[in-house]
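User: Fold this; tokens only.

Assistant: Input:
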Amino acid sequence: MAAEPLSNGAAYQSVPESYVLPGDKRPGSSPSSAAAIPVVDLGGDDPDRIVKQIMGAGREFGFFQVINHGVPGQVMGEMMSSAEEFFGLPTEEKMVLYSTDSKKLPRFHTSIGNDQEKLLYWRDCLKLGCYPLEQFRHQWPQKPARLRAALEAYTTAVRAVALRLLRLTAAGLGLDEGHFEGELTAGPVIMNVNHYVPCPEPSLTMGLAPHCDPNVVTVLADNGVCGLQARQRGSGGGWVDVEPLPGALVVNFGHQMEVVSNGALRGGEHRVVTNARAARTSLATFVMPAMGCAVAAAPGMVPDGEAPQYRPFTYQEFMGAYTAAIGDRDAVLARFQNKD
């Protein structure tokens, strides 16, 4: 169904039926955890400490917050305020970009944004191609007026942080520092600008269902409103609130990191819950392989005499399976588990 975007101005006193999830899919149907998401400090001159922090967080959660990352506060602030301003534009100006075609860029939509959805999630999203700049710059929305300059500065800075983190992660895995450069990060950088309006009955719906991102690494900033939750590793692992630190970036590894590391690092499973008090806006920046990239466990990650956990595949093949499984972590990985 093509749904009316939540940010178009309607005042919701109750959750519309199309957003009400079955009982076993609601936020309170699975356990929570009092654990805290690790914080990685990129400041200082001790790379061994940073690598150790990344590896510990990657094993337990596939998630961590990053401080002293080098992205100027003004750059982050301009991007966030421009994003929030977009969702406040008059309906007719936003709807020019509305589409249920998942391949279209830029694209404004609600929930997941396709015509086959029977149940909807409490989210509006502006999906943007960001990098290479020369490929996507001309497509960016004209309004709000400052969005284009903010997007260019923010994308450039955050991509640099992602690549630095991948070099440190490669070192932690015992790989060549440049292992994640080249085809594994040669795909376009895509951003989901997510917006969750206040929800009158948060216990009935979700902003996003549990999932892992399909790519290598995702870097996220938000406006300080809670909602993101990460699952702790292990059977029955509970959901942990990602309490946003001022000025921090949130990083999660995607499925491709789990495959390349042969399970040493976790693809960070996460979900988004809603709240009745304040709108939440987040900027999720995805660094991904080229579609034709061959993905497999890296040399040295598989013990002698053992088969890798996952068979080799192309990223294009993986994305086909991911879309078919609607992002379900176990269903996606089962398609590629090595049966040998």
